[in-house]
Amino acid sequence: MTRLGIYLQDAHPIAEAMEYATYAEQSGFEAVWQADSRLVRDAVVPMAAFATCTETLKIGSGVVDCWTRNPARLASTFSTLDDLAPGRMILGIGAWWDPLASKVGVERRRPLTAMREIVEACRALLADETVTFHGEFVHLDGVELDYVYQPRRPKEVPIYIGATGDRMLELTGEIADGVVLNYLVSPEYNRRAMDRLADGAARAGRSIDDIDRPQLVVCSVAESRAEALDGARMMVTQYLGQQPHIMKASGVPEHLLEEIGRVLTWPATHEQVEAASKLVPDEVVQMICAAGTVEEVREKVAQYMADGCTCPILYPLGPDVRLMIDAFADWTP
Fold it and tell me: In this structure, which of 26, 115, 136, 264 has its CB flanked by the most CB atoms within 10 Å?
């Protein structure tokens, strides 16, 4: 059966998202992913909620940022999540984005070095090691997850990096268990990303087949193509206008990105996003999303898989989440 995940960001109340996670599990999906989404929803609380309402679903952070949680606290958090659902948690971590980071006082200085140090430290702590680490960003002095009231054990929490740019993709190939590939990119982007991941993997004596490659895919399914495209257009507009790493990777013409940027501020109002969305033509939505009828959406998701994605993480933006889940239940591309 095809590996599939579902991504439940902040478009639904948490209680409703729990129902969707349960339904996805019953429909054969492998995983549910949750992000620290902008400044709307923390990832950890809904991840814990998903753990309580499912039995087999893997639960990933897609992603938490590497700056606002001390690496020891990050390891402690995911150790705790593993206590709730042993063997089902995935630590997905990313380097965040501006202007959001700078507006809350975070300087995203040397993100590759920071990511390398944090991944190394977190992995050692989760493996039940005592860690002394004197790096540029990570400073630990004989630190361990100091269990007192439970048996000591390594926590089986793989670490995936949310990578979009070339150098972060190469680092991911070198040090991570997997990559969380971004959404709102064209399948052509995937082919370039595979080359960068392979380059990084080679530095560590690995191949790209040693790296899991789930990918966020905006997925809008409806009975009519027009309704499905409209279901995705607002989110497409907001992210193209506010997240530079996605803008750069998307393949969307520069002049359109500039037009959207002139309308949107950060944080954007609903009215601003709605106004800017009128600038985004159908062909752009279709280029970077899986949007349309069931058959059109399946075809686009299959294209991402053909270009390197090992597990599509479907982000439902259409009017009927269960329709999207049903469209992929027992699906083989």
Answer: 115
- How many domains is the chain partitioned into structurally? 2
> Residues 111, 144: one domain?
yes
Residues 203 and 252 in one domain: no
Domain that holds residue 126: 5-222+293-328
pLDDT digits (tens, 9 = 90+) for 172-193: 999 999 999 999 998 889 999 9
pLDDT of 266 higher than 80? no
Are 319 and 206 in contact by the 8 Å Cβ rule? The answer is: no
HSE (side-chain half, CA atoms, 13 Å) at 63: 27
99 preceded by cis ω (within 30°)?
Answer: yes
Angle between helices 321-328 and 14-26 (to 10 degrees): 20
The 3-state DSSP class for residue 123 equals helix
Phi, psi of 61 (to 5 degrees): -90, 120
Q: pTM of the predicted model, to two decimals? A: 0.94
CA–CA distance, 273 with 234 (Å, rounded to integer): 6
Q: Does position 245 have pLDDT exceeding 90, yes or no?
A: no
Q: What is the CATH number of the domain that holds 37?
A: 3.20.20.30
pLDDT-derived band at 155, boundaries 50, 70, 90: very high
Q: Which residues contact 195 (CB under 8 A, 6 or more apart)?
A: none
Whether residue 301 lies inside any domain: the answer is yes
pLDDT higher than 80, residue 75:
yes
| 179 plus 84 within the same structural domain | yes
